[in-house]
Amino acid sequence: MKKQTITIYDVARESGVSMATVSRVVNGNDNVKPETKEKVLAVIENLNYHPNAVARGLASKKTTTIGVIIPSVTNLFFSALALGIDDIASMYDYNIILTNSDGNEEKELKVLETLRSKQVDGIIYMGNKITEDFRSMLNNMRTPMVLAGSIDHENKIPSVNIDYKQAVFTQTCELINNGNKKISFISGSLDWPINKNYRLAGYKQALKKFGIEYDESLVISTKQDYKSGYLLSSKIKNSNISAAVVSDDELAAGVLNGVVDSGMRVPEDFEVATSNDTMITEFTRPTMSTISQPLYDMGAVSMRLLTKLMNDDVVDDNNVLLNFSLKKRNSTK
Amino acid sequence: MKKQTITIYDVARESGVSMATVSRVVNGNDNVKPETKEKVLAVIENLNYHPNAVARGLASKKTTTIGVIIPSVTNLFFSALALGIDDIASMYDYNIILTNSDGNEEKELKVLETLRSKQVDGIIYMGNKITEDFRSMLNNMRTPMVLAGSIDHENKIPSVNIDYKQAVFTQTCELINNGNKKISFISGSLDWPINKNYRLAGYKQALKKFGIEYDESLVISTKQDYKSGYLLSSKIKNSNISAAVVSDDELAAGVLNGVVDSGMRVPEDFEVATSNDTMITEFTRPTMSTISQPLYDMGAVSMRLLTKLMNDDVVDDNNVLLNFSLKKRNSTK
DNA sequence: TTGAAAGCGCTAACAT
DNA sequence: ATGTTAGCGCTTTCAA
Predict the structure, then answer these.
(1) In sequence order, what are the beta bridge partners of B244?
(2) Would you give the DSSP letter of residue A218?
(3) Quick check: B282 contacting A, CB < 8 Å?
(4) What share of chain A is helix, strand, coil (3-state, %, to 5)?
(5) Strand D: which residues 164-193 of B lie within 7 A (CB)?
(6) What does the DSSP 8-state code read for residue A154?
(7) Is the overall model pTM greater than 0.90, yes or no?
């Protein structure tokens, strides 16, 4: 016995109506007499009919699927955004094709091609840098995209972020107010616009405000993970740095634990302020002071924005900035 | 100007061959004369043709998409698996539709229906409990599924796990060997087979081996998150419990920090052993001793298994158990 | 090695 | 309120 697929045609035949009517019932179109509707519904139940979204996608040119590009699902910053994205997506009856890019530009390009072939209705991009190849491919495909927690240095693609520059500026000011003269700026690659053009810029601005000279040797750019942060401790210990602004929580946890394990007291000898308010900030001892930002909401808002873009709704603000605040915990004075 | 889609038909016309030949070229079928192939490839390039995977899916009844059900992407245990899944999936040219179930059984059911309609070629399930409704719907749809880091109490669905019972058994034995008499078992819901039938069973077995009487009051079942763990400290402090086996790292971090913040010393006054070897175990102070398991590999292997199932390959072992070990850190003696 | 043609299961005019 | 019909863009026999 071959597996026999029940189609809309079978339902139509069995209920003595046309395919169009069945389609209307399935899609909740009101133009169906209640009795007809009931009859069709009964047949659907009997025949155990299940709509085929692929066929629907081909016919309607809408897949109700969106693509989500993420550096890694294991990154708590991005996964928090992804959760917000998925929640709103399912609220609007979209599904998500999720692909890890590993921050690899070639892979991002390949993923984008796949998303195009799968005819996604829209894309949410999380990542560190929009390359020119990526941008031109995107322009070529006419699929709406929004950036979530991610920066396009040309600021052309719709996005949802916080004001990273202002946030780091404020944070650095606090550290200066706490009496620190030598504050290190520790981040992932400075090749990423978010680090170079926003965070570092905020850091510099704060120094300037207080008339502190910018010292490039205090800027540390490294791989953005726990271990890299941890390994910074000897460098820090052998310097006169008394505080650090760190661009990522995992990295900051590494710095914190490394510094503590090397015998320094935090925050007495060394203060660390981090960026993302993920749960990591609560796990460490001392807990970490951080920029507080609505991660889930950033994802949710970006997905909401994408639904508007997909509907060609009017959008008043293509580059949304959500509010942030500073959350004082125990790694700063 | 309307957006004009370039189809395989256009390519065929322009290159003076049939659609079938273009299809062969696009799909890397060898039965094409090299010259023909080149010609077609050139036209594809010129016309900027991009295959439509939706149409392909409808015609071939294969979508090269699999569904992944996950409690939450923000859970480090599951997201580590998800990363392994995605890597292997993309290696085999599959994409992933990722949906968060929030551990909600109704939502899981709804998701399953969506995955059916989207015609996924296979499904990977991560979660706490397979309900009967879920199982019957799955049986009804004939789509292969494998469980990753998740238990089917009937053990009918292919799966990839470690031997949780043996792991907790060993772990508990160590704690007993360290001199503990009153060891608490702390986990999420005991309604989940993985907790009740495996972890708790391993715990009991260890007690039995050492002739320690099982005391139900030492079994704590709670919401599986940091805060719930943290709030357990007063209960623990006002007892004579000297150690705990915890079923989740976030939960364990809560227990650890709560206990420490309430003035107890870890591991001197209280030992805690956790389950998943996520990065959280490195973040806390003291770091946490844990069952060590190959999270990424569990995801990877489950995806690999799924590819075999989708191909109707022979599978020698439907219920894979990967090796675990015990990793001693500083939260135990 | 290549082509012709019949679907895949559905939607969306358009007509009634 | 309902039916007819022409696709959507591709794969896949089958034949040549």
Answers:
(1) B184, B272
(2) G
(3) yes
(4) 45, 15, 40
(5) none
(6) T
(7) yes
B116 touches strand D (CB under 7 A): no
Strand runs (DSSP E) across B167-262, as ranges? 183-187, 219-221, 243-246
What gap in Å lies between CA A63 and CA A66, rounded to an integer? 8
How far in angstroms lies nucleotide D9's C1' from the CA of residue B126?
35
Partner-chain residue, chosen from B74, B83, B142, that has the shortest CB–CB distance to A100: B83
Alpha-carbon A195 to chain mean position: 16
Cα first-last separation, chain A: 74
B31-43 residue pLDDT tens? 899 999 999 999 9
B289-292 and B325-327 beta bridge pairing: antiparallel
Residues of A in contact with B63 (CB under 8 A): 54
d(C-alpha B200, C-alpha B246), whole Å: 10
The runs of H, that is alpha helices, within chain A are 8-15, 19-26, 34-47, 53-60, 76-91, 105-117, 132-141, 164-177, 193, 200-209, 226-230, 233-237, 249-261, 280-283, 295-310
Write phi, then psi, for B36 (nearest 5 degrees). -60, -45
- The tens digit of pLDDT for each residue in A221-278 reads 999 999 999 999 999 999 999 999 999 999 999 999 999 999 999 999 999 999 999 9
- Of A210, A186, A181, A182, nearest to A200 by C-alpha is A186
DSSP B156: -
Q: Is the peptide bond preceding residue A286 cis, with omega within 30 degrees of 0?
A: yes
Q: How far is the CA of B3 from the C1' of D9 (A)?
A: 15
